[in-house]
Design a protein that fits this description.
Shape: globular
Order of helices and strands: EEEHEHHEHEEEEEHEHHHEHEEE
Radius of gyration: 17 Å
Structural class: alpha/beta
Number of helices: 9
Strand content: 25-35%
Strand order of the largest sheet: 6-5-4-3-2-1-14-15
Number of strands: 15
Helix content: 25-40%
Largest sheet: 8 strands, mixed
């Protein structure tokens, strides 16, 4: 059994993360168009026929932009909380929406998806961990602060998509208005590089093979800067920056083997 993972896009212009085994897969958020999702999966050698469900973290447009078209075209159930559904203005005609609760595992074939609540300025935001046998892959973005839930789940993961949204110096000296700066750094917005690195160094398990730095700000961060910060503390964990412009490679974890790139 193998588990595969990639970021199809990561940033304020759209977020979509693929996690699957050899038989089935799920999308965590679908914030880019259906057509662009299809194009990127084709380039990676992935098949939409393997995708069995979409899980929605919260209602912001960069996480739901492609949900409705993808769900209708491929007859995919959409797992979404009632509060998120009420606030996202998602057109649900011919779409199966299924509610979920924090910490209650959902089975999709041999994948087990567990949601947990997080700090973010949305109606009912959640992060997700996708498990397949002994492997756990966490998608931890759009987080205002590192709560106990996040630390507990992060410490169990073999792979993490971890938000490193902004450099504090770049945000402070940048052109964003004061109210927006406060929204980003105010505890319900996003994790800074420093906060993400603190979580990584404090809670990273020895078995974490990959960390994919995610949801980087275009204006207030630098991919090379944050990659260097993490690589200095990464030890045996590979550091990848998830792009806001293109997909990452597909990575694979195989039984009793290290992760490989395909």
């Amino acid at each position: 059994m193998s588990i595969h993972f990639t970021s199809l896009n990561s940033g304020s212009n759209g977020n979509c993360y693929y996690v699957g085994n050899d038989q089935e897969a799920v999308l965590i958020d679908a914030g880019i168009s259906c057509r662009e999702t299809e194009r990127r999966m084709v380039r990676l050698g992935l098949r939409m026929s393997k995708v069995k469900a979409i899980f929605v973290s919260h209602e912001h447009s960069d996480h739901i932009r492609g949900v409705a078209v993808l769900a209708r075209k491929y007859q995919l159930p959409v797992y979404i909380t009632p509060a998120t559904l009420q606030n996202c203005y998602l057109r649900t005609e011919a779409i199966e929406t299924i509610s979920f609760l924090a910490e209650e595992p959902i089975q999709v074939g041999d994948l087990t998806i567990t949601a947990f609540s997080k700090w973010h300025d949305a109606a009912d935001p959640h992060s997700f961990v996708v498990a397949c046998q002994e492997y756990k892959i966490g998608v931890f973005t759009d987080i205002g602060r590192a709560c106990q839930n996040l630390m507990r789940h992060f410490s169990q993961c073999h792979v993490a998509f971890l938000e490193a949204n902004y450099c504090e110096h770049l945000l402070e000296s940048g052109r964003y208005p004061y109210y927006l700066k406060n929204r980003i750094r105010g505890g319900h917005g996003h994790l800074s590089n420093r906060e993400a690195l603190s979580l990584f160094t404090t809670c990273k398990p020895d078995h974490m093979s990959h960390v994919l730095l995610s949801h980087l700000s275009k204006e207030n961060n630098c991919p090379n800067l944050v990659k260097e910060l993490f690589e200095a503390q990464a030890e045996n964990t590979q550091v990848i920056v998830a792009s806001r412009y293109e997909e990452t490679p597909v990575f694979t974890l195989r039984m009793a083997e290290a992760a490989v790139q395909i």
